[in-house]
From TrEMBL:
Residue stretches spanning the membrane: 15-34, 46-66, 78-98, 147-171, 183-203, 210-232, 238-261, 273-291, 303-324
InterPro entries: MFS, MFS_dom, MFS_trans_sf
Gene Ontology CC terms, in alphabetical order: membrane
Domain of life: Eukaryota
Principal subcellular localisation of the protein: membrane
Membrane-related topology note: Multi-pass membrane protein
Pfam families, per database record: MFS_1 (PF07690)
Protein name per UniProt: Major facilitator superfamily (MFS) profile domain-containing protein
Length: 361
């Protein structure tokens, strides 16, 4: 994008970026589910997605530094170059340093492969080899929970896009320079990364996801309520941004962990995760249009819509966790209680509908 000199060129670059990036978000939880059990996924996904918050923090620092560089090219072009080159280099290195699926990677010995597959058979039967079950693809599209997850992802993405839009505006009310305002965007993102990791660890220990998604949504909603009600107290409004970033990043981090296991099979996971994330990306489109400059600095409409969507996330999370608990209870009554949650369950045919499969609520 640093090479764009007109609107058409920038649009081609941006569309290409979105097209290539679209597989990254769904691909990571699918990949991680090949290597980590349901008791390990939350914390791993937490600090993986926590780096998105860290990127938000460092983005402000990098922008601050670039504003003080007197280069021969525009600041925004230099920013794209500085942020783009490391990404390209790391992407190329990933081809060699990131292991393939456990049963295929050359990074493990035969004994280590067997051990890893044994680990992955805790709670479900891991797929071996690149298999596609067409019935599981249809099941993913028919599963109402995918669309409920899409609602949560939509609300969280709208909030995430919104905070990027209005955070600099709120900070500018402090009467600081633009460069210093960039520095003040760092703390909310840094705190959200810590909160996400702590909550993800707790969700692993308690094997509960929906409760934490609901609580994180409440935290984000409270942040937006503060922005609506405290229109003139800049310190309280700045505190509200901590609530919003911490709540929103936690929602997304826990949600992608939640469905990485609860879909049962690799095929249904590879279909369902991109499905609900695709629905959720429309939230980013909405969020980027909720805060026109003409409505600043109060942005009543934008804050109200974002707050309502956060509460919608609370409702959707409660519905999901209750439905999972009901299904688990019904299967316990019909097939018997699962005493050993690490016991192998064959999910290759029925995915998450296997009689002895139990959801993480």
């Amino acid at each position: 994008m640093s090479t764009g000199f007109n609107f058409a060129g920038l649009m081609v670059c941006r569309i290409s970026l979105g097209a290539f990036e679209s597989a990254f978000g769904p691909g990571i939880p699918i990949y991680m589910a090949m290597w980590y059990t349901k008791h390990e996924m939350g914390f791993r996904m937490g600090y993986w997605f926590g780096f998105a918050a860290v990127a938000g923090a460092f983005g402000g620092l990098i922008a601050f530094g670039i504003q003080h560089i007197h280069a021969a090219i525009s600041d925004w072009r230099l920013l794209f170059i500085v942020e783009g080159i490391p990404t390209i280099c790391l992407g190329l290195l990933t081809i060699w340093i990131l292991p393939d699926r456990p049963d295929k990677t050359s990074c493990l010995t035969e004994a280590e492969r067997r051990l890893q597959l044994e680990r992955m058979n805790r709670g479900l039967r891991a797929d071996v080899g690149r298999t596609i079950n067409k019935a599981h693809i249809k099941a993913a599209f028919k599963d109402w929970r995918m669309y409920m997850a899409g609602v949560i992802f939509f609300g969280a993405n709208c909030s995430l896009a919104s905070i990027s839009a209005f955070l600099p505006t709120i900070i500018s009310e402090f009467g600081v320079t633009d460069a210093r305002a960039q520095l003040l965007t760092v703390p909310p993102y840094a705190v959200s990364a810590v909160v996400l990791c702590l909550v993800s660890f707790a969700s692993d220990r308690l094997q509960s996801r929906g409760l934490y998604v609901a609580l994180a949504s409440v935290l984000g909603a409270v942040g937006y309520l503060i922005l609506l009600l405290a229109a003139h107290n800049i310190h309280v409004r700045y505190f509200a941004t901590f609530c919003i970033t911490s709540g929103t990043y936690t929602i997304i981090g826990i949600l992608i962990t939640w469905f990485a296991h609860n879909l049962g099979s690799e095929t249904k996971r590879a279909t369902g995760v991109p499905l609900y994330q695709a629905i959720g990306q429309f939230g980013s489109i909405l969020g980027s249009h909720l805060f026109p400059a003409s409505e600043g600095p109060r942005y009543t409409k934008g804050f109200a819509v974002s707050c309502a969507l956060e509460f919608l996330c609370v409702l959707a999370a409660i519905i999901l966790t209750v439905s999972y608990r009901i299904d688990n209870h019904q299967r316990d009554c019909k097939y018997g209680k699962v005493e050993n949650t690490d016991a192998t369950v064959d999910t290759r045919e029925l995915a998450d509908k296997a009689p002895m499969f139990r959801y993480v609520p």
